[in-house]
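Reading group handout, session on sequence-to-structure problems. Before we discuss, look at one worked example. The prompt was deliberately terse, the way you'd type it at a terminal:

> structure Dihydrodipicolinate synthase family protein

The input record follows.
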Amino acid sequence: MTTSPRSTGTGTGNRTSNRPWRGVLVATALPLRDDLSVDYDQYAEHCAWLVENGCDGVVPNGSLGEYQVLTPEERARVVETAVSAIGGSRVMPGVAAYGSAESRRWAEQARDAGCASVMLLPPNAYRADERSVLAHYAEVAKAGLPVVAYNNPIDTKVDLVPELLAKLHGEGYIRAVKEFSGDVRRAYQLAELAPELDLLIGADDVLLELALAGAKGWVAGYPNALPAATVELYHAAVDGDLATAKALYEQLHPLLRWDSKVEFVQAIKLSMDIVGRHGGRCRPPRVELLPEQEAVIRSATEKAVAAGLA
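And the output record:
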């Protein structure tokens, strides 16, 4: 599949310099060697390849990038590698940590590395109340970079509901939200409560629904394996080209739904391997896919390749 003219990776579409989180930002998988050490050269090449294939930027050190099992030195170097490969304006690192002070330090590291924004989960060591959430985002905002909130109540047990997001935005702590709850109804309520807060698609398998609801970007998983096809899907969806978007969505959804499953890292890395990229292994405690899971993902990926989507 050829990349559409609008998706050249040059910041086209609705991406702007003061809102660098707009467009397709890929939550990057992290290539590991056989000994499970980080292959930084391979990661730099992967970031560049994603941009060459129409993606607007990358999000290192998210869950897909296995940040929880990286050393501090590795985590910092991953950010620096991405910036060196594609420029800081295209890099929005995840800065999640158990403590607010640590998250702020990661935001400062991203700032000093030249990044233009960061993505932040709410407190995730316990079920935080609203006051704790507000204090957490206030602390990280002190680093001086625009903050994109990441709402993942499934994993964090803290739900950034529209009313709370509106408060966070009203206080100036966040500029956008990656919405992973799966509840597409929230998009309309959020637009009413905080019209200047950018909604970003946070789960691959609700892309079409949230794009039609006015999303301004997509923090994406499956472009790691199929960038051109997924970027074409995104632009068709946000432009209202339903004929193109629906056809692509139906073809890709057997893969996109894995982004919302427990085994999403292993699934996306397997698809990367199948299409000729370096996916490879994951660090423990993630384990290998079950044979029946691998068979489903392999079949769906091979069908996408046969359809010209890779």
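Points for discussion. First: The chain has a mean pLDDT of 94. Second: The two ends are 6 Å apart (CA to CA).
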